[in-house]
Structure prediction request, 306 residues.
Amino acid sequence: MAQSTVAAVDTSFIFIMAFAFLLFALIMFLMLFFVVRYRRSRNPVPEETRANPWMEAGWIAAALLLVLLMFFSGLTGFQFLRRPPSGAMKVTVTARQWSWLFQYENGHTTTELVVPQGKPVSLALVSQDVIHSFYVPDFRVKQDVVPGMTTRAWFQADRPGTHDILCAEYCGLEHSQMMSRVVVVTEADFARWYAGDEEAIPGVESLENNPTGEKLLRIKGCLDCHSTNGAKGIGPTFKGLYGSRVDVTTAGRKRTVVADEEYCRRSLIDPGADVLVGYRDSMPSEKGKLTEAEVAEILTFLESLR
Prediction:
């Protein structure tokens, strides 16, 4: 079995920790030795100690060698983590406040990263808004996700199971809630799911098969800020919103409008046009990211929450 990202990181970490422990033990030994050997009762009269160039050169060389060994150990691991194996499965990871979206080469789009057991996975990471950091502690993978550029990482999971995905870069009010999962399944189950059989992996939602409005809102990350039960969040609740009268700020002026179909559609495409009073203009635009059929599904769902 090829070296994994876990082994690469852990090897460097253990190597550096071992040197640090040995250096600590050496310093403590020498400190105690000098305290006992040169204590006042044994050396009542101080003596001048002359410089020893060879000893000084030896200490400098040893320290330099130690630093270079740790550097090359880290560099080797870093280069390994930057180069996914050939044939790795490619997934595009989109970070947004405050959720993750995963898109596969066949068009599958999910909110959880589903991967086959024993196959390397190459990640292309992009951000829709601010700097995030994709972090899977179990696989020792942590990579910043920066707006305007694509960063990359990879890993290989060798046993079925689930593993937490976190954001390791503070990205706003709901940073601590920006979580998802890596779902590792057998190659057979993954092949069925990848071919369109959603029942092969229960609990994993995707945009395929004519998704409902609620499913679209969840996958698009809308429900990370908006609730459907009346609870207040980063954004206003969707419950009772459709058809109600709301106070908004439009081009710097406050006014009252009806949250009808036109208003909800505009809020999806151009959320900064009418900002509800008491909330910030932080919602990303879905212009070009939703089809007319998907917008209609979302509007139907919002209307059902009246």
User: Anything to note?
Assistant: The longest helix spans residues 5-37. The chain has six helices and 13 strands. The mean pLDDT is 85.
